[in-house]
Description:
This protein is an alpha/beta fold. It has a single domain (55-206, 263-408), classed as Alkaline Phosphatase, subunit A. The protein has helices at 14-21, 77-82, 107-114, 133-142, 154-162, 204-218, 227-252, 263-276, 297-321, 388-399, 404-408, and strands at 55-62, 71-72, 94-95, 101-102, 118-125, 175-178, 194-197, 283-289, 328-333, 354-359, 366-368, 386-387. β3 and β4 form a beta hairpin. α3 (107-114) packs across α9 (297-321) and α8 (263-276) runs parallel beside α9 (297-321). It is globular and about 65 Å long. The protein starts with 13 loop residues before the first helix and ends in a 10-residue tail after the last helix.
Amino acid sequence: MSKNLPTPLFPTTRREFLQLSGRGIGLLAFSRFAPAFLVNSALASTPLPEKDRPILVLVQLAGGNDGLNTLVPFEDSNYYRLRPTLGLAKDKVLRLSDTHGLHPSCAAMSSLFHEGKLAIVQNVGYPNPNRSHFRSTEIWETASSSSEFLADGWIGRFMDNACAGQPADTHDPVGIHISNGVPQSFLSAHDHPTFGLVPGAGNRRENEENRRLLESLVNQPGAAENDNATFLKHTLMDSLVTEKKVQQVLGSYQPATPYPGNSFAASLRNIAALIASGLPTRVYFVSLSGFDTHSNQANQQANLLTTLSTGLAAFQKDLELHRLDGQVATMTFSEFGRRPSENQSRGTDHGTAAPLFVMGSRIKGGLHGTAPDLNLAHNQDLTFSTDFRSVYATMLDRWLNCPSAAVLGSKFNDLPIV
Length: 418
């Protein structure tokens, strides 16, 4: 913030605080309900987060990643019939089995697969799929059915069930997101300390400007004149404490391996730094955008998959060299796949199912689930074979040690990936 700008007014509503938070102002510990320091929630007495507990890192592939050119069915003639120009040549694919291989840009992920550290769940989707970016993302982030609308996210409900009882005087977040807004996944019925970083954060000048902005807001006289203002001022004070702590961690971290020079890899490097610092955070969220490939898909997706593959591999290696890999699992998701048929612009339109990746040293690698049936007419969609909530249930039950039915509303079959 320039020195010539006036000191911003103290926010008097949660909406105003959200607008400030969108500028990268750290802690976003707000909700639709009164905060814990005003009203004691009647939550189950579950243990506090511990520094050695399992951690889940969520990677959003925003825009709808094309699954068929990511996990390629190179022995299926229907694949080449539906994609006469976009179909990847059999001799270019990185083979994982006798029938399937990864896009040639995914060499680093292919190595992880052959080391047994990468599970690929095939043909993941949900019944009655929605092709709207907004609505389908909402379905994935809230773990709803296509016909219901939920106010809280599946990670928020995990926090409600497994992260209760955090002392009011602690500033350590249970969830951290590196994104341009609060993920819907994080919305919850009860308050939990969460923290937000803008992608690419780490610039010293920007961090200093954020700190000064927070200090100016917190120190404004007469700001806390009612319960709502008191809540917001308390939140900003928490934010200032957490902002300073996080920036100190990020500034002093020494990665054990080089990271690629892009924003996505920088975000993963920051997550590794925060994990190495011993924060009790259970869930991290990062997003890689640009997958809405309606035209000229080949080069665009190749570049994105290179970014994804090299970033994930560097992150995994860094965790391993710091001996932190045993407590971290990384999972991708995307709002939908693309249609099997290419379009006239050498791209693909909004579709339904796609593969989902789970990475980690304690993950049971390999191909899981059933490959999609490509005996389809032009512009016909894939029929999913694995419900995405089965993947969520597996990570909740077997990784995060939280009963999945309490989060997802019903029981879904676990998968043998953990």
